[in-house]
């Protein structure tokens, strides 16, 4: 479901209302595949998702809080149920009525969104650092083997 694509830029504190998230589905290049049933743009926005779709992934969405990417939607999928299935502890799912977001809710959601973002970035940096260290180890082993061979030949 997730990919390494970059979504539309989102500013901190943005997209906490259903209307703001719904607006992302109304962009000129948007071709959301479902107009009726449980998987409409409105239901997606109510479940905390905003649109990130591309020509290659026309049903790609991301949660405003947990930043979980999802695509591969089917007309009968319920966005809130799918969100809960994939990220049961998402802070957005604790909101009972997405139309009644308080300032306190926004501050709490923003804090959770930032914590999630930091954790994702940390994991990515750890992967990159591990790969870098492994590459350096290989280079050192190769250099040591070369030095040993050169020492034996002299």
UniProtKB/TrEMBL annotation:
Is Secreted found in the keyword set? no
Q: Which InterPro entries match?
A: Baculoviral_IAP, BIR_rpt
CDD domains in the record: BIR
Swiss-Prot/TrEMBL keywords: Metal-binding, Zinc
Look up the domain of life of the source. Eukaryota
Write out the GO MF terms. metal ion binding
Check the record and name the Pfam families matching this protein: BIR
Task: State the protein's name.
Answer: Baculoviral IAP repeat-containing protein 5
Q: Which organism is it from?
A: Geodia barretti (Barrett's horny sponge)
* Organism lineage: Eukaryota, Metazoa, Porifera, Demospongiae, Heteroscleromorpha
């Amino acid at each position: 479901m997730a990919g390494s694509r970059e979504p539309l830029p989102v500013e901190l504190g943005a997209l906490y209302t259903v209307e703001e998230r719904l607006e992302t589905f109304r962009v000129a290049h948007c071709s959301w595949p479902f107009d009726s049933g449980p998987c409409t743009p409105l239901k997606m926005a109510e479940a905390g998702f905003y649109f990130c779709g591309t020509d290659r992934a026309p049903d790609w969405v991301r949660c405003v809080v947990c930043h979980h990417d999802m695509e591969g939607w089917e007309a009968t999928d319920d966005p809130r149920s799918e969100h809960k299935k994939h990220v049961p502890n998402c802070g957005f799912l604790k909101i009972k009525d997405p139309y009644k977001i308080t300032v306190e809710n926004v501050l709490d959601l923003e804090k959770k969104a930032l914590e999630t973002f930091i954790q994702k970035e940390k994991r990515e940096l750890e992967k990159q650092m591990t790969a870098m260290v492994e590459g350096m180890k290989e280079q050192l082993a190769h250099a040591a083997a070369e030095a040993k061979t050169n020492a034996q030949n002299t």
